[in-house]
Amino acid sequence: MFNPEILIELANTKMPFGKHQGWLLCNLPEPYLNWFHRNGFPKGKLGMQLATLYEIKLNGLEYLLKPLLKK
């Protein structure tokens, strides 16, 4: 069963490290996600979030996350 809270959290979590530290995950550029896809996503929850975001962007579904952003 799909948990919609996963998408809400994905849309509102900030990148904790690296070149785009502090950016919302949903705003990370595709080339950055492609790099992780090629070189390996981090372990744990962040890796799952980045892998999910990669698939969302790969399939042109970013618009699903925009209404979930907290103001």
Question: What integer value in Å does the Rg equal?
Answer: 11 Å
Total number of strands:
0
The percentage of residues in β strands lies in under 5%
Q: Tell me roughly what share of residues is in helical segments.
A: 40-55%
Order of helices and strands: HHH
Counting DSSP H or I runs of 4 or more residues, the number of helices is: 3
The structural class is mainly alpha
Question: Rough shape?
Answer: globular
* Integer tally of domains: 1
Distinctive features:
3 helices; 71 residues; mainly alpha; single chain
Short note summarizing the structure:
By secondary structure, the protein is mostly helical.
Overview of the molecule:
This protein is an all-alpha fold and 71 residues long. The protein has one domain (5-68). It has three helices and no strands. Helix 2 crosses helix 3 (44-58). It is globular and about 30 Å long. The mean pLDDT is 93.
SSE topology:
Layout (H helix, E strand, L loop, with lengths): L4 H8 L17 H10 L4 H15 L13
Helix pairs in contact: 2-3
InterPro entries: QSregVF_b
Protein name: Cytoplasmic protein
Organism: Sphingobacterium haloxyli
